[in-house]
Amino acid sequence: MLQPDYKIFEMNKRLQQRTDDSDNLWWDAFANEFFDDEAQLTLTFCLEDGPKRYTVGRTLIPRFFRSIFEGGVTELHWELRHAKDSFHQNTVSLDCDQATMVTQHGKPMFTKVYTEGRLIVEFNFDDLLRIRSWHFAIRNHRELIPRSVIAMQEPGMVETLSKNITRQGLTATTLNYLRVSNEVSSRIEPLSEGVDPDTLPLPGAQTLTGQNMSQQQQMDNLDFGSEPFQFQ
Amino acid sequence: MLQPDYKIFEMNKRLQQRTDDSDNLWWDAFANEFFDDEAQLTLTFCLEDGPKRYTVGRTLIPRFFRSIFEGGVTELHWELRHAKDSFHQNTVSLDCDQATMVTQHGKPMFTKVYTEGRLIVEFNFDDLLRIRSWHFAIRNHRELIPRSVIAMQEPGMVETLSKNITRQGLTATTLNYLRVSNEVSSRIEPLSEGVDPDTLPLPGAQTLTGQNMSQQQQMDNLDFGSEPFQFQ
Fold it and tell me: Which residue on chain A is closest to B81 by alpha carbon?
C-alpha cells in the first residue's frame, strides 16, 4: 500500500512529461489516471474584493490543469511539508498545512511562483488511490525572479520587474477559467450531465487585466459567447 | 521493489525533518539510513580558476550535509526531471541529466538557489537501496529573490541585491568543508582509517570571501590548526 504523498509525487512526475503537444486527450488521460470519476477540485483564496471559492467538477478538471499551462506556465508541481495521512473505511486523506504549488513562467521573464496554503486531498482507499476531492486553500504567494536581472535594469525597469504576473499565484487565464466553469457548471450541469466541456465558451485572458474592478464588473466583462476560448 | 527516484523523494522528506537542534547524532542517522558504509560522494564544478573535483568519504558525509545548513541554508531538496534507471547485478543506478539541488537561504534576504547539473547515483540492489556513490556534476546555478524586494530598494541596494551569495550554488562554508576534507582525507586516511571526523580542524567561512584569489592563495589562507571550525 503506497502512501498518499507518493501519489502526489507520481502526479508531479506525470506533469513533467507534458509537452507543448499535449492535447485534450493527454489531459483526459492525466485526469483519468489521478482523479475518480466523481472527483471535485476546489480552490479557495482571497482577492482584493473578498474571499473566493471555486469548485471544478470532474469533466472540467482536465481543462483546469490545461488552463494553468495556457496561462504561460511551463512547469508545475506540488511540494508538501509534513503532510499527515488519515485512513478511513473507504478513503485515505492527506492533510498538508504547508503545501506549495510551484509554477515556472517564462514570460515576460523567468519567474518561479510559490503559492502556499493548505492542501486536503481525499483518495479512494484501493490500489489506484484515485483522488475524490482536492481542496487547496491558498494563503499567500511569492514570486521569485533571478537576482541577475536586477543588475541589468534600465529606467522604468524597476516598475516592470516589481509587478506581479499572478494574483494569489494564479494567472488571469486560470482565474477566468475558474469563474466561467463555475458559472457554467451551476447553469448547465443540472440540465445536462453529458455536456462536452470542449464546447464551452470561455473568455479571453485579457478580460481580467483590471485588478481593481469589482466582482460585478468582472462578471459583466466575461464574454460567454462571441469569442470562444481556444486552447491551441 | 521501489524505484530509485523514490529513495531520493524519501531523502527529501527526511531532510524536511531536520531542525536547528539536529546534532551530529541526527546527521549520522541520516547518513546511515541513506548511504552504504563504503559510500562516496563526489561533486564536480567549475570555479573562476578552473574545474574542481571533490570526493567525500563515508565518515565525512554527515558533516558534508551539515555544512550546507551551517552555511545559512534553511531547506534543501533535490528535484529530478526525466531520471533514468538501469539495473545491474548488485546495483541500480539513477542517471538524471536535469537534476536540481534546491536550497533556501534566509540571510541576508530570502533566496532560493537552484543548482543544476547531472546527478548519477548508484544504489545497492536490495531492499534498503542504500547509496554506494553519489556524483553531482554541477553545470550552473541560479539565485532567485522575491520580486517584492525590488520595489523597496534604496541607494546602494542594487549592488547588494545583485550579488550572489553562493558560488556554483555552494556556500563558502560548504566549499571550505570540501577543500579541507579532501585535503585531510588525502593526508590522513592512508595513515588512520579510524579518525574521528568531529575532531578535524576546519577553517572559518570568512577565509573564502575573496572571489578572485588564485587557488594557491586560497589554499594558503586555509587555517588547518589554530581555529577549529565549530558547528554550533
Answer: A16
Partner-chain residue, chosen from A81, A112, A162, that has the shortest CB–CB distance to B150? A162
pLDDT above 60 for A66:
yes
| Chain A (30-49) residues lying within 8 Å, Cβ to Cβ, of chain B | none
Positive or negative: CA dihedral B7, B11, B12, B16: positive
Determine the residue of chain B that is closest to A2 in CA distance: B2
- Residue A200's identity, in one-letter code, is L
Domain borders along chain B are 4-103+115-143+166-194
Strand runs labelled E in B71-166:
73-81, 84-87, 91-105, 111-124, 131-146
For chain A, say whether B19 makes contact (Cβ under 8 Å).
no
Distance separating alpha carbons of residues A188 and A194, to the nearest angstrom: 10
Q: 3-state DSSP call for residue A158?
A: helix
CB contact under 8 A, A147 and B143: yes
- Per-residue pLDDT tens over the stretch B151-207: 766 667 777 788 999 999 999 999 999 998 877 766 655 444 455 555 554 544 433
Facing residue for A16 by CB, picked from B9, B82, B145: B82
Other Cβ atoms within 10 Å of A161 Cβ, number: 17
The three cell numbers of residue B206 are 570568512
Chain B CB within 8 Å of residue A161 CB: yes
What is the Cα–Cα distance from B105 to B47, expressed in whole angstroms? 21
Q: Which CATH architecture has domain B4-103+115-143+166-194?
A: Roll (3.10)
Write the CB contacts of A94 (distance below 8 Å, at least 6 apart in sequence).
A4, A5, A8, A80, A83, A84, A85, A119, A120, A121, A122, A123
Tell me the pLDDT band of A204, cut-offs 50, 70 and 90.
Answer: very low
B110: which 3 cell numbers? 530570502
Quote the mean pLDDT of chain A. Answer: 83
Max intra-chain CA distance, chain B: 62
Task: Please name which of B39, B31, B36, B41 lies closest in space to residue B181, comparing C-alpha atoms.
Answer: B41
User: How much is the pLDDT for A187?
Assistant: 66
- Please tell me which of the candidates A16, A81, A147 has its beta carbon nearest to residue B161: A147
Residue of A5, A144, A160 to mutate, interface with B, max B Cβ within 10 Å: A144
CA–CA separation, B80 vs B119, rounded Å?
A: 9
What is the 3-state secondary structure of B49-64?
Answer: CEEEEEEEEHHHHHHH
